[in-house]
Each structure stands twice: as C-alpha cells, then as structure tokens.
Amino acid sequence: MIWLGDPVIPQRFLHAGEIHCAARPSLVTTILGSCVAVCLWDCRLHIGAVNHFVLPESPPGGGGPRYGDVAIDLLLKRMVAIGCRVEDLRAKIFGGASTLIGLSGNNDVGARNVALALERLPQHGVQVLLRRTGGTRGIQLRYCTWNAEAFVRPIGAVRQPPK
C-alpha cells in the first residue's frame, strides 16, 4: 500500500504550463486560481497524469502547454506514449475560479478554461468523472497518480473589488 507521506513516492510541484506524466507513482501538488488542472487516470494500467494550464486557447501560430488546447492534447499524447489507450482514460477537472471579482475587463478566464476542458476531453473520447471548478478562491490540489485520488484545499481570501 502507498501512503501520502511515503518517502519512496516522488513528490512534484507542478507549475503553470507544466505537465506530469510518468508510469511510476507520484504525488503531484499544484496551486490553481483561474488556471485549470486536468487529471487523467488509466483505469486499466492504473497510471495517472496531470497538466496545469493558464489560458484556454493558444494564439494563432500555436503555443505551449500554458494553453488548454495544447496542454490537453499533449497530456493525452504522453499517456498514449507510455502505453495507455484513450478509451481507458478518465478525467477529473479542478480550478477555474473567478479570482478577480469586479475588476473591469474581466472576461472570466476561469470559466473559459473549464468550458474548454469540458468540451475538449469528450471530443477525444475521455469521460469526465468529476469536477471541482469555479468559485472565487484558489485551491491547492494534491493528486495521487497511483490511484487517482485528489485532495483539494481552498486557499486565500475572497478578493473584493476596490471601492
């Protein structure tokens, strides 16, 4: 049995624009505000992976994994590269908060990030099992790649618009 505090299990902090995908079990932690993390789980091989993207769509000419459209496609490609089949993958989606309440010009990047993930994953044939998205506070996410358990803790205070 694997425990969260097991010194043998590698722990990784995932920064914005990064992807973690490995056949070996690991505990991945990240902080999300309006950003979104898509956690994938292969129910046949018991392998998990996760990304952390900032904006929904890459600019014309392409972009890196800071963009959801690129990050989701790369996450799927990396899972397939280590032996997973797309039909065996299941997803959990986290983040997408509206952390900038009341600021002029806010077009709710968090909601757009979530919408992109909810649209794109089923297009690839990946079932979304769970989502913890929205709200006005950021979260800390801890994802166990060996069993797909996710632990979420709210962080920060609710931001109020300036008066």
Task: List the topology elements.
Elements: E1 11-13, E2 19-21, E3 27-32, E4 36-42, E5 47-51, H1 68-81, E6 89-95, H2 109-123, E7 127-133, E8 138-144, E9 150-155
Parallel strand pairs: 1-3, 6-7
Antiparallel strand pairs: 2-5, 3-8, 4-5, 4-6, 8-9
Catalytic activity: L-glutaminyl-[protein] + H2O = L-glutamyl-[protein] + NH4(+)
Keywords: Chemotaxis, Hydrolase
Function: Probably deamidates glutamine residues to glutamate on methyl-accepting chemotaxis receptors (MCPs), playing an important role in chemotaxis.
> Number of DSSP strands?
9
The run of helices and strands is EEEEEHEHEEE
CATH class: Alpha Beta
Overall radius of gyration: 16 Å
Strand composition percent: 25-35%
EC number: 3.5.1.44
InterPro entries: CheD-like_sf, Chemorcpt_Glu_NH3ase_CheD, Cytotoxic_necrot_fac-like_cat
Keywords: Chemotaxis, Hydrolase
Protein name: Probable chemoreceptor glutamine deamidase CheD
Structural overview:
The protein is α+β, with helices and mostly antiparallel strands and 163 residues long. It has two helices and nine strands. It has one domain (11-155): 2-Layer Sandwich (60s Ribosomal Protein L30, Chain: A), CATH 3.30.1330.200. It has helices at 68-81, 109-123; strands at 11-13, 19-21, 27-32, 36-42, 47-51, 89-95, 127-133, 138-144, 150-155. The strands form two sheets. Strands 2-5-4-6-7 form a five-stranded mixed sheet, with helices on one face. Strands 1-3-8-9 form a four-stranded mixed sheet, with no helix packed on it. β4 (36-42) and β5 form a beta hairpin. The chain is globular and about 40 Å long. The relative contact order is 0.22. The mean pLDDT is 91. It is an enzyme of class 3 (hydrolase).
